[in-house]
Amino acid sequence: MEFDLIDLIRRHTAQSRDDVRMGIGDDAAVLAVPPGQELAVAIDTLVEGVHFPPGTAPADIGWKALAVNLSDLAAMGASPAWALLALTLPSPDPVFIEGFAEGFAQLAQPYRLALIGGDTTRGPMTISMAVHGFVAPGKALLRAGACVGDAVLVTGTLGDAAAGLQLLQRGGPVDESDARYRFLAERLNRPTPRLASGMALRERATSCIDVSDGLLADLGHICAASDVAAEIESVLLPRSPALLSLFDETTARDFALSGGDDYELCFTVPMARVAEVQADLARLGCGATRIGRIVEGSGVRVRDVDGQWLESTRQGWDHFAA
Amino acid sequence: MEFDLIDLIRRHTAQSRDDVRMGIGDDAAVLAVPPGQELAVAIDTLVEGVHFPPGTAPADIGWKALAVNLSDLAAMGASPAWALLALTLPSPDPVFIEGFAEGFAQLAQPYRLALIGGDTTRGPMTISMAVHGFVAPGKALLRAGACVGDAVLVTGTLGDAAAGLQLLQRGGPVDESDARYRFLAERLNRPTPRLASGMALRERATSCIDVSDGLLADLGHICAASDVAAEIESVLLPRSPALLSLFDETTARDFALSGGDDYELCFTVPMARVAEVQADLARLGCGATRIGRIVEGSGVRVRDVDGQWLESTRQGWDHFAA
């Protein structure tokens, strides 16, 4: 079923780019990387029932499949260019494909991102996407590079996607006409890759990662790659009004620390540049909040509102049993 | 489970390449396309039970997942460089991964192809791979370009993979110590992407495609893209001794015409260059056989041994009911 479905998606998502010499329709795409640019490449898979609940709208799946990949490019400071799609479906369902292509195109079009190739196969629903972007040589943002004394910042707000997922799974009691519910569901289903912020951080952030697995896990990757530790103040964690009004303080804190799927950027900058970076990211719409600092050592520590260090428990985060 | 499994695969398949600025271990890989080269990119998915039978050896799956992708690069005349892997498995099975990585590496190493990124997720077994290769600007082999009067050639032999699949599915009676059986099973499980042949065909073939869906379907794509027709002589179809000794003439012919998964190249060259191209491809080991010619019109016609035209039937190919 390769040809029809990919062609259907292509018609929804057509983008003409001079750097695409041959797009969909031959054995491979042929592409020209602009002179003086390097290529940033990432691949991510969404599996139904694992990465999105059964019943998720096809347009949300199309958006999210692209968004989680573009978030990887954002974390590198790369500008997006091309995508490849490997779509496995139980049956060739044109209604699903129409919706999927529509959601994909809504996110792709503002970036002039072109779908350059794909493969559709029959099987349990699985969506793999690979994205390609450009970055000047040596300018990519890496996980390694955080220095002792740097500030730790995050874009946007944290914990919303985890809250949205819990509301969805809880089912019944939530009122879908409630704007707070719609906001959290949108944060789960339609994450915004922070591409403009990532590009603005080039040559300013000393390290960067996107928050896909949860703040503590992802900041932990920065610390491991940079051979440093981080101290976070839970009182500084940016959280949305919707999250804070629908969940108690402890739950909201734990979602912000450990919830995945927010796709915000977590990054480090020298203390002297914090104000300048915050001003620029505020102009880009998402803002950035300072949540802690880089220190010597390893791992990530969290100080709670009362000044006590938190430790991980099965349910979430708790004060050290002293 | 992303980090451990991809790291395990990476250790099996480590290739140091100067053009990989950042490989596995950050949010995206960072790559440098050599100056003056364009990028050829393809993606393909294998699903258990659809593209390989349950019970296929993990090393064969690792080989084939890469081979079907490299075959797309071969059909473009590109030289391979990098691969991305999206691996979905029901559980993180180290024995499967070890075998998969071993088969992948056996095919990757001679080409110094580097695994530059990946994503492992939990779900029904699905393997998507994206490969990247280089080709000089304007030199990629395309499906469009076949001219009236050109000869149609194929590398290697046709129908072996379909025969191997039928023997596997038939089960019982086949003697696995029989070298003919082993040959056909190997053609199914360990196809050889014709990369050297593809590169040798640059600036000589007027069109090219790899035979993944069957000769008639894939040559049909050349004809559609080139706005021409093709006439094939069934007596000229290259078939292996194993195929001819285990199946009757009609079945062997039908496998060669319609069987998929052979991953040979089908291409067109001006008649005056046939001998030169055949001599070069013979030196590369796989050889090339002239099987027909390009004529005006549309579609692919097949003339049987007795001079009569064949038509498609539900069972295979038959003489026109005149």
UniProtKB/TrEMBL annotation, chains A, B:
Mg(2+) 5 binds at D213. It comes from the Bacteria. Mg(2+) 2 binds at D44, D72. Signal peptide: none annotated. GO terms for biological process: thiamine biosynthetic process; thiamine diphosphate biosynthetic process. Its EC number is 2.7.4.16. It catalyses: thiamine phosphate + ATP = thiamine diphosphate + ADP. ATP binds at G118, D119, R143, S212. Mg(2+) 1 binds at D44, D119. Pathway: Cofactor biosynthesis; thiamine diphosphate biosynthesis; thiamine diphosphate from thiamine phosphate: step 1/1. Substrate binds at H51, D261, W317. Mg(2+) 3 binds at D27, D72, D210. Keywords: ATP-binding, Kinase, Magnesium, Metal-binding, Nucleotide-binding, Thiamine biosynthesis, Transferase. Residues 148-303 form the PurM-like C-terminal domain. Belongs to the thiamine-monophosphate kinase family. Reaction mechanism of ThiL seems to utilize a direct, inline transfer of the gamma-phosphate of ATP to TMP rather than a phosphorylated enzyme intermediate. NCBIfam families: thiL. This is Thiamine-monophosphate kinase.
